[in-house]
Write a structure and sequence with these properties.
mainly alpha, single chain, Glycoprotein, Type 4 Pilin, three-stranded antiparallel β-sheet
Length: about 150
């Protein structure tokens, strides 16, 4: 059986229906992945905030061991960066941390001394950047045990 030039031209490429089916499948797969991945990102952000608070808390403890006190609210966390600039005597001339991290939502961590929940409070205001809230908007602090 011979195929003429007209039939060869018709056999090249994909039909519109085939392209639409492929696009539909790609869209469906994208939706499934997005639905499964986005909640994991939220949990990762909360976990990062908890880890940052633990690291800053460790730096505050080192500061307290060398200076016999925590920085007050006015001095804040910046006193952990470079002790020489803050005019106090310490064996640690490198600072207690290299840089102050931002919380996962781009806000500064808040340090209060004296604290409402403990000797000092160190916390993030959560995803909404406002005090209080529930879920992702809940404050995450050194007093927080678990966040669902």
């Amino acid at each position: 059986m011979k195929i003429n030039k007209k039939q060869k031209k018709l056999q090249k490429g994909f039909s519109l229906i085939e392209i639409l089916v492929v696009l539909f499948i790609i869209g469906l797969l994208t939706t499934i992945v997005a639905v499964n991945v986005l909640p994991s990102q939220d949990k990762a952000m909360v976990s990062k905030a908890k880890v940052d608070i633990a690291i800053l808390g460790g730096a505050l403890e080192m500061y307290r061991l060398e200076n016999y006190r925590y920085p007050n609210t006015e001095e804040g966390l910046k006193f952990l960066l470079n002790p020489d600039e803050n005019n106090f005597n310490t064996a640690n001339n490198q600072g207690y941390i290299k840089s102050l991290p931002k919380d996962p939502w781009g806000n500064d961590y808040i340090f209060l001394n004296p604290g409402e929940y403990g000797e000092y409070d160190l916390f993030s205001l959560g995803a909404d950047g406002q005090s209080g809230g529930e879920g992702l908007n809940q404050d995450i602090g050194n007093w927080t045990e678990s966040i669902e």
